[in-house]
Input
Amino acid sequence: MAADAVAGLANQAIVTDGMRYSLFNLIGQTMRGHRGWPRAWRDPDPKAGYDVVIVGAGGHGLATAYYLAKEHGITNVAVLEKGYLGGGNVGRNTTIVRSNYELPGNEPFYEHSLKLWEGLSQDINYNVMFSQRGVLNLAHSDGQVDAFARRGNGMRLHGADAVLLTREEVRERVPALDLDNARFPVRGGLLQPRAGTARHDAVAWGLARAADSLGVDIIQNCEVTGIARENGRVTGVETTRGHIKAGKVGLAVAGHTTKLAEMAGLRLPVESHLLQAFVTEAIKPMVDQVVTFAAGHFYISQSDHGGLVFGSSLDGYNSYAARGNMPAVEHTIEAAMSLMPSVGRLRLLRHWGGVMDMSMDGSPIISKTPVEGLYLNGGWCYGGFKATPGSGWCFAHTIARDEPHALNAPLSLERFESGHLLDEESTGPFPNTH
Amino acid sequence: MTGERSFRGAEGGLIDRERPLSFTFDGREMTGYAGDTLASALLANGVRLVGRSFKYHRPRGIFAAGSNEPNALVELGTGARRTPNIPATMAELREGLAAASQNRWPSLTFDLMAVNDLLAPFMPAGFYYKTFMWPRALWERLYEPQIRKAAGLGRPAMAPDPDRYERGTLHCDILVVGGGPAGLSAALAAGRTGARVVLCDEDFRLGGRLLADDVRLDGRPGHAWAESVAGELAGLDNVRLMRRTTVFGYYDHNTLGAVEKVADYREDRAADVPRERLWHIEAHRVVLATGANERPIAFTNNDLPGVMLGSAARAYVNRFAVRPGARAVIFANNDDIGATADALSNGGVEVAEVVDGREGWLVKRALGRRGLRGVELSDGKRIACDLLCVSGGWDPAVHLSSQTGVKPVWDADSFCLVPGEPRQAEVSAGACAGRFTTENALRDGAEAGRAAAAACGFDDKAPDQPAVEEPAAGNLQPIWTVPGKAKRIFLDFQHDVSLADIKLATREGYTSVEHLKRYTTLGMATDQGKVGNVVGLAMLAEERGVPIAEVGTTTFRPPYTPTTLGAFAGYNRQQHFQPVRRTPLHDWAERRGAIYVEAGPWLRSRAFLQPGEDLFAASIREAKATRDGVGLCDVSTLGKIDIQGPDAVELLNRVYCNGWKRLPVGKARYGLMLREDGIVFDDGTTSRLGERHYLMTTTTTHAGPVMAHLEYCHQVLWPELDVQMVSVTDQWAGLAIAGPYARKVLEKVLPDEDLSNEGFPFLAAREMELQGIPARLFRISFSGELGFELNVPADYGPAVADLLMRAGAEYNIVPYGLEALDIMRIEKGHVTGAELHGRTTAADVGLGRMMSTKKDYIGRRMVERPGIAAPERPSLVGLVPADGTSPLHGGAHLLPRGVPTTAENDEGYITSPAYSPELGHWIALGLLKNGPDRIGETVRMVDLVRGADIPVKVVSPIFVDPEGKRLYA
Amino acid sequence: MRIPCPLCGERALEEFTYLGDATVKRPAAEETDPKAWYDFVYLRDNPRGPHRELWHHLHGCRAWLEVERDTLTHEVFDSRLARERGTEAK
Output
């Protein structure tokens, strides 16, 4: 069923009143000094009301609006953004896209998302530079090799791709690894060849442009300050640009989910934590894949621009600061130097922080809520980027049909109370450990 | 080629003419002097073309004189020490320095990639988002690989970095960042009070702009004043001067990160000298005296080699006695014109024209192809020149204060960003606060230093201020760009971001300052926008028709300048990434042929190889020898926690899911600990050694977490409990003695103890003496054999192990490793981390009956949730190959027979496989849906990633001695 | 970041580990309402601003601390031993 949906998407071109992006038009515009390119999206004032209001013009909010319009024909939609679109974690992450999950409640959702990624550039007519360069997880013990085999088998059973590599195959593929002097030796690896990276900002911009072209109003600099309810049902939102009526309200504000939910009287199994990310100066190609190693909770890849992009664990304490501290910086780079000591002379260009919605089991929530007409998309921990199209697709379905799709049914808010947890990291109800 | 002498003044400059240094650039031999940077030495040698830009490969020269250099990036060193992207302006010259230009092929002067410059019209900002989409497959196969190859600047070394790095921490009352007039003045004011002061400056010589400008203090040249102040500071014990040290990051609670270059500038580098040191600086007060970066005015072809910041030109002339050109035009919008003109004239550079933008007279266009040959002015006049000094005003270096989370604010009078209201104990002094003159810097610095010292409890009296003579400055009229060919008016040089790109981005709706940055890559190059960002902001404001203050800024992120990765890691790299923990028996085992396996931070003996044996053979032999005779295993890594007090038993009762109230003194009990969410946390035995004295053991993995958990329970949940606990893991060596002859061996070394089955039954625990040393003996077994665990003080571990080996010789005792232990525990159906992996309940692993219903304990209530309690959850079973011979695979999944191999039919997986020497075939533990009800059924072991799909039979997880005859023997 | 320990003084972040919200209280042993336990184990206020939270001086004196810290600015207002918390409230 998922595969059919994808095929459908790929065949359906967007009708825009703007200009299609193509080599032909690029050449044409070059002749005209690029003066004819239209706005990528409008800058509308909010209307008095909408069928659906999505709070948060990040990747997930924009994808939700796009799929509401495209898959469900719901175009009277506003996406409200307190700052500028794409200004949250969609523009701060390390751009990894993968579906290498272990748990049956997670894997089909992420695999569906990966399939959507595979046609996304063509679908939204915006090159998001999705690069299926492969994600390689390194195993440091025989037990971990078995654990990766278990995960890889699960992925394959779900129709995803997974290859178990030996130590020598790892060495051949990633020459920058110093396997012979590693503190935690590499015994093998799990490769997902179809996984990779994408240009994060382009995803937000492309989805914004595509949603806008289908009639969605994206309203920037419009902060939601309240959620209006009558008789337990959502009726609209209060914003810095006035009251906006809404038939349904969807929250897609990872990092600040609990703040918005609080406006509707909800407490959530979510904490806000700080994750840092890192990029070096641009250099010529050095690392072809995305490589992760569990011994240091570390992941690294090289952007098309040439910078090595990497990260590791959370700073570890609740934070809304989007600015991290030195211990996490040092830990991350120690992990880099543990297996890739050839990066030693390269220089860190920039490190930054993002505010993560850390859920209590480390898995996301795409769900109805106890408040009628209020829908929740959050708890993405540090895995939100890869889920962008799948999340929007499932959230749109949940909002449009008022019930979850089978793909996101396991990602319900009730699972914490019912005990149907999705604890990939197996660390329990401690958000900073996921 | 022009030789060295042509561009070096005969005298003057802060270089040591007694110490000539030879170096190479792209293989060409050149000379400079001690005190030069690579940039000044290149200019002295007449080199103008130094690099190529990122996108269009346009020829570029030296534009600045400090860490803001966007163009002149080089690769330094060779082989494993090749270091890309170093600004020539920041490379201190030393003998033998090998520099090479980068991002060009085949050569710097003839770069084939310069074809991009011709194609530039097709490649405006964000062009790649609009194309390369068809056909879809080509993105991966053609477009992206080509983009990746073309992108990037220098080449990384592919071999491990051979240099060393160190990390350290400094504590001080006052950290002064920057060693220019403001910083020196602050350090002097604070240092004289006796406060502990650290002063850091990125340069190798203190003085900042005093080294570059013609300023006189008390009648002496500015650099002489700087030298004498540096001298006085160096003489104060309470002051630490750190040259070549960049404070790159301002973190919470006045913790700052700094990196000190230690070895790269030295010719005589000793092996024990680190290349760089990373410092954590903890300061009570911080004085930011980071100065300002000059900004250019942008005009057509403003990126040609020969176009240079006026302040940089003054630095080359005054500090390095180098003529950056022979004939110059000066173009500015402020009074710096005079200083630049004077400096150039005094330095022997002909000043062909001074173009004062404030008079409406502008440089419209730079002329030349690979280097500047002249300029065209707004009145059409053309002037031949090879140097154009451009001054567009100064941008305070607000980076560090902004990193604290304080947004800089636009000062509409000075036309620059200045620091916002401080959030931490810091103050900005001098140019970085937007007060640009030397006089302001000195006064600001002195006051900041005095106030900081006073705040730390030191005397507050400011030192006398020197009398300042300095050239006129300021009177800026904002001129950001000169109308012309927008595609060739560059704002971000390195990334080739032009005015046309800004216009395109705003036209397309990328109007937020963050959108602009990300869409055009303005400010994302290695200079992090130090040159072009503010001009970019001004142009964005103009395009949007709003004041500059309204467009805001992007967020300032650390590091201030690119910082070496190796320095952040320090010693903690490769094998030293994390410490290794070795057991007291590590060397003992090594002498017996042990190979080790990582278990968290520990190295544990995995097997004791005999000649010709591999791991498999050795572990089979060890397991068999233990089951048939007796074996000895090092179990020192198990966590041991000593728990004492009247409420010790109450604590145990609350942290374990099973009951502890009736455990008598002298007995051990297996305990199972849950997390509050009902999932198994840890297991182990706890023994009651005395009335109020218990010894808990934990798994190796969870020794630390369990200790922290107990402390949490005691200090946070139940502080009323009268109990104390301490980890004694490291104090005791642990030896498991197992096998039918285990008792016989122990009786030989403990002749006074009654170890009979009656005198020391299963689960007995007793403190005793072993040949005069304290010992603890427990009758517990993980292998299922008659077994004991003996604890002795850690240092005695090897001696006691030897004693046991001698005593056991007659029974052919063997040391056995983790692998044999694993085989035996699988044979016995005991669960370990493979089964207790953080998602299993007690019921899942067959231990559901341990959960008491009579008491409260951690995890009790959550375990009742339907998802946790569901009977169909995968639970523990044993598995054997249906054909009796095939190996079983860890991580393989279990599916019923006769169904499609898909996720809907997935019913579980194998957790622990082993070849059983007792049974002569493979066995495994696994978790299977409704497991215990399916004993006798045949299912499939499906291992898609390793290629296997075989029938396996579901059996009891206890393969060997299900009645426990051996255990209780 | 630096955390003040009442026993050891102000110490660097790397000496501590973090647990989380200190305001959630474990229900009494006899509490059988699953909602009360769900609240304790899973639900958090997650304030943007002052936050009372539990830190463990793991690589120091091993005291559990209740610290009040601003989650937006990271400013620390208060730090006390967890075992002594609430004493002055009574």
